[in-house]
Amino acid sequence: MNLMNRDKFKSIVEIGLLLLIAVVLGLISAYLPIIGVIVDFFWAVPFVVLTIRSDIEKAALALTAAVILLSLLIDPILAVKLALSFGLSGLALGYAIQKNVGAVRIFIFTLMISFAAQILSMMFMLFVVNVDVLGNQFAMVKESFEETFEVYKSIGMSQEEIDKARAEVEPGLELLSLLTPTLLLLMALINTTACFYAAKWIAPRMKFYIPDFPKFSTWRFPVAFLYLMVLALLGLYWGSTRNLQLLYTVSINANLLSMVVGFVQGLSILSFAADHFKVSKLVRRLIFVVIMINFMLFQIVAFTGLFDMLFDYRKNFSDRDQK
Predict the structure, then answer these.
(1) Coil/strand/helix, residue 32
(2) Could you read off the pLDDT of 125-149 as tens digits, one per residue?
(3) Quick one: CA dihedral 219, 222, 223, 225, positive or negative?
(4) What is residue 212's three-state secondary structure?
(5) Phi/psi at 227 (5° precision)
(6) Could you say which of 1.10.1760, 3.30.420, 1.20.1070, 3.10.450 is the CATH number of the domain covering 3-131+181-206?
(7) CA-CA distance, 200 to 106, in Å (whole number)?
(8) Using an 8 Å Cβ cutoff, are 194 and 186 in contact?
(9) 202 and 45 in contact (C-beta within 8 Å)?
(10) Are the C-beta atoms of 117 and 85 separated by less than 8 Å?
């Protein structure tokens, strides 16, 4: 066998092996519900590797073949949903890594494609299969609360107390339904993060390179997120006082997005301070955990991060040290 034929044979074997891994992961997703939820976020990794090692056209063909095989073995709807929700982001991540545009651009590009893929998957389930996935999830959550209230009633809780508890829960459920775009973005973020770091873990073994992110203590986001928060607060006011539901929904999602981004930048500032004062990793992790579980601290850190986008506290701090 000459060298060209040997390389071609090796490439075919590699494609077949990665395709087999994707099919096995798909079967795990279908038949092991609890583990399958986690496996879903890594289902695209074989297509990331295939795109990098070969090209996006072959990876797309392999993705199509995986959908066909899973359709025959389990269910066509689940197979298409996997391909839309996770497979497309795998192709995007592999393509961006192949172009070697830097870790931040790779991640942002993949996140955008993954977010679009989540929307496409939801539209497929809603308009083709006639299943409102998120609506069903919200209904299940509401039903679980109702079952809990029934249990409380059976053990002697008064109807007045149950009604009070229900009145406290229902606004939260309504708010959750308004945050559908943010929930889809969160799904895309988890998927992108899982794929990125899984691909980075196997990169040395597969002989390709994925660049590192900048040090966390140096992370900064555009000041546009601060302006987005201001506009979101105005939109929340106008939407609630003028009964403009669409404006209110857009604003509440924009506000949450800006607060989360501000929170990440706020943690970056704390990491910078911890580096400066040589705080141990254990202590800083404990501080981060306390902040994450305390809503008041979360808000303080988020607003600090948002205003840092404008004032750059770290630069001012460094300038004072140099004087």
Answers:
(1) coil
(2) 888 888 777 777 777 777 777 777 7
(3) negative
(4) coil
(5) -65, -35
(6) 1.10.1760
(7) 12
(8) no
(9) yes
(10) yes
